Every structure is written in structure tokens, then in C-alpha cells.
Amino acid sequence: MENCRKCGRPLQPLEIGATRKFINRGAEEFFCLSCLAAEFKVTEALLLEKIEHFRKQGCTLFD
Ligand SMILES: [Zn+2]
Fold it and tell me: What is the pLDDT along the chain (63 residues), one digit of tens a residue?
């Protein structure tokens, strides 16, 4: 189980995929959606929208 690098929260697979998608495909340290949203100064809802968009496009990070 991976934990958020910033706040230590246990991560969902979706959050690991999101870190790879939004920060770095080869990332080995991961962030939860809250910390990703803070990093990019957007809402978690917006990140989820984008994730859903990528998922529909068939992005394998969000299988
Ligand atoms: Zn976090």
C-alpha cells in the first residue's frame, strides 16, 4: 500500500494513476487527490473530471 508523499494518507489506485498522469509517468512517489489538487491549484472535482475524461479515452493508467 502506497501512502501520499505529502500528507501520508493511504492511496487509492486511482490516485496513483493520477500522479502518473498529471506529474510524471515514471513517478515512484505518489500523492492523494487532495494534495494533487493543491499542487495544481484546482479542485478535486476538476481532477476527477479530467480522470474520467482520460479513462473514457482508454488511458491505461486508470484501468
Ligand atoms: Zn495527500
Answer: 899 999 999 999 999 999 999 999 999 999 999 999 999 999 999 999 999 999 999 999 887
Q: Considering its fold, how many domains does the chain have in total?
A: 1
Q: Ligand 1: distance of its center to the CA of 62 in Å?
A: 19
Q: Does residue 52 sit within a domain?
A: yes
Cα separation, 33 vs 6, in Å, equals 11
Which residues have a beta carbon within 5 Å of ligand 1, which is an ion? 4, 6-7, 32, 35
Distance, in Å, from the CA atom of 49 to the CA atom of 3, rounded to the nearest integer, reads: 23
Say how many Å lie between the CA of residue 57 and the centre of ligand 1: 26
Residue 11 per-residue DSSP state: P
41 within domain boundaries: yes
The pTM assigned to this predicted structure is: 0.90
| Domain of 38, in residue numbers | 13-57
Domain-located, residue 33: yes
